[in-house]
């Protein structure tokens, strides 16, 4: 058990130091405008890379007609219309629950 806690502390410390190094570096470095403009697209690209496979794949196979996709599309519509994070999460989760019970 001691090894587990030591491993968790070391992993947490390394994660913290890695993130702190970027904050310290970017705090002193003025990125060229083109680089700064490009970096703005990283978070949406990462989010899309995480979400899209979850919506389109079921058990590793392409499944365009599944409850997750429909709930995700409904949640995207709610997010677009309301700009409410909480509303989007609640509607998406409720839609997923209902559709999983239905299908």
Polypeptide structure, described:
With 103 residues, the protein is mainly alpha-helical. It folds into two domains: 1-30; 40-102, no CATH class. Helices cover 81% and strands 4% of the residues. It has five helices and two strands. It has helices spanning 2-28, 33-39, 42-56, 67-82, 85-102; strands spanning 57-58, 61-62.
> How much helix is in the residues?
over 70%
State the helix count. 5
If strands are numbered along the chain, what order do they take across the biggest sheet?
1-2
Number of domains: 2
Oligomer category: single chain
Shape assignment:
extended
Largest sheet, strands/sense/barrel: 2 strands, antiparallel
- Low-confidence residue ranges: none
Instruction: Count all strands and give the number.
Output: 2
Spatial gap, N to C terminus: 43 Å
Strand residue percentage: under 5%
Overall residue-averaged pLDDT value: 90
State the gist of this model:
The protein is 81% helix and 4% strand. It has 103 residues and is mainly α. The chain has a two-stranded antiparallel sheet with strand order 1-2.
Per-chain topology:
Blueprint: H1 2-28, H2 33-39, H3 42-56, E1 57-58, E2 61-62, H4 67-82, H5 85-102
Antiparallel strand pairs: 1-2
Helix pairs in contact: 4-5
